[in-house]
Design a protein that fits this description.
By secondary structure, this protein is of the alpha+beta class. The protein has one domain: Alpha-Beta Complex (Sufe protein. Chain: A). The protein is built from 5 helices and 3 strands; from the N terminus they run H-E-E-E-H-H-H-H. It has a 3-stranded antiparallel beta sheet, with helices on one face. Strand 1 and strand 2 form a beta hairpin. 35% of the residues are buried. Bound molecules: FE2/S2 (inorganic) cluster (FES).
């Protein structure tokens, strides 16, 4: 991994973007890495035409998992649900900028899986 990518990953891990909770999110999804039980929860606020106007995550995980979650939250702000549905693991791996072994791919994937779950699940007014 080149130094710029390593520094970028560490920066997202140490200074995560959009980490926390939203008040009354429209969509919520969680996913767990089955290899280590680390997890990520994604919360989304949408406008009336299906654009993500705010996104936040919480979770526990390694540098790769939390950096990927931070990069993902940064990317999806302002994106349409339709565009976000097209995101793939390869997009996240590309943002990370490194070749990942299968076990590390599971780390990179957990936030994306939480996002995909959130896309299918509307929250009720009770939360
Ligand atoms: Fe648990 Fe990476 S080791 S998410």
């Amino acid at each position: 991994m080149s130094t710029p990518y390593r520094e970028r990953i560490l920066d997202h891990f140490q200074n995560p973007r959009h980490r926390g909770h939203l008040t009354a999110p429209d969509r919520v999804g969680e996913a767990e890495n089955p290899l280590c039980s680390d997890w990520v929860r994604v919360e989304l606020r949408l406008n009336g035409i299906g654009t993500i106007v705010e996104a936040a995550f919480t979770g526990e995980g390694c540098v790769i998992a939390l950096a990927a979650a931070s990069m993902l939250m940064e990317y999806i702000q302002g994106q349409s649900l339709e565009d976000v549905r097209r995101l793939r693991e390869t997009d996240v791996v590309q943002w990370l900028g490194m070749d990942l072994r299968p076990a590390r791919r599971a780390c990179a994937r957990v936030a994306l899986e939480a996002l995909k779950t959130a896309l299918t699940r509307e929250t009720s007014p009770d939360g």
